[in-house]
Amino acid sequence: xxxxxxxxxxxxxxxxxxxxxxxxxxxxxxxxxxxxxxxxxxxxxxxxxxxxxxxxxxxxxxxxxxxxxxxxxxxxxxxxxxxxxxxxxxxxxxxxxxxx
Length: 100
Prior knowledge:
By secondary structure, the chain is mainly alpha-helical. It has one domain. It is 78% helix and 0% strand. It contains four helices and no strands. Helix 1 runs antiparallel to helix 4 and helix 2 runs antiparallel to helix 3 (50-59). The model has no long low-confidence stretch (mean pLDDT 83).
């Protein structure tokens, strides 16, 4: 039975990690001011969901924002670490195969 191959595109994983880090930076800059600019941008808009969205943004207190940031950062780090471990294993196995 032939071994099943797992294909990982490290460039795609690294791009995803970079995008997530950029999203974290954007989130932190928005959350830093308590979403005040987003809340005021919604002022005067008429829609079924605007009031609810304003309340959600107002309820994101510092503890919630900190927890969201922590979870996003941990997820991104684990993704990066996992990709690195797979790449290291792949390179190690490739080196062993070349030595045979």
